[in-house]
Amino acid sequence: xxxxxxxxxxxxxxxxxxxxxxxxxxxxxxxxxxxxxxxxxxxxxxxxxxxxxxxxxxxxxxxxxxxxxxxxxxxxxxxxxxxxxxxxxxxxxxxxxxxxxxxxxxxxxxxxxxxxxxxxxxxxxxxxxxxxxxxxxxxxxxxxxxxxxxxxxxxxxxxxxxxxxxxxxxxxxxxxxxxxxxxxxxxxxxxxxxxxxxxxxxxxxxxxxxxxxxxxxxxxxxxxxxxxxxxxxxxxxxxxxxxxxxxxxxxxxxxxxxxxxxxxxxxxxxxxxxxxxxxxxxxxxxxxxxxxxxxxxxxxxxxxxxxxxxxxxxxxxxxxxxxx
Length: 324
Known about the structure:
By secondary structure, the chain is an alpha/beta fold.
């Protein structure tokens, strides 16, 4: 999708803040106030991209109001709820700045920490994550996060993979590595590994959410973790291979036990319980492995359908005289 070019009345931004918005109408004005205060202090031209992920509240109305008051604000409304990373991809592709900042819309990522990330980026890194000093996630989200980090370890190193977060800064040129990427499953962190190995992280403050609840339900968390593992990693296939190998050894050991027991005692192993247990174990492993293969086949099937990662249904750029 081609996005609007900057208006001739706007200076070319150096920084672009990309924020996926989901049911945060009550927080956007405060977010805008704090974010602009920080970015103004950096003395560099900037823009703020708010991508409304069809949350069903008044967020789009608020975004339009902010865009009318502040020409540095640009808004995009997606046609349906595509997900946080898909919304981020929309904003990243529309960004005009040389450096992109991503943060959540709930003010848990304090805008006041942005200068810290930019300072770390200037040391020669391409991507810097703001790692919360104090994590505030539940057990289920921690489990999904752990799965995600396992999938990223080989690409960015175990230490950096363990520190990823939604609060990140990176150089816009990295998007060239995934400009042709399309499909319903998107992971910004994985896409960034396609363009660089120069990752870093730095501790930052994380505030408590003061309004509403997180849009990350248990189902969404598990779905994202599954997509990470099967959509961008071969780890599940490797696990399936190792399971097959280990249970093959187990089967040979069980056969050896039966033969040795019969040879030295002249008695066969008692039948039903032993046989039923072995069959159940091996059938379960086979079904689990087939399920993994099925997930990969499903990914291939969905990609052949050429489903878009997102669809923009409205933009504040369109109402300001610019064309898509």
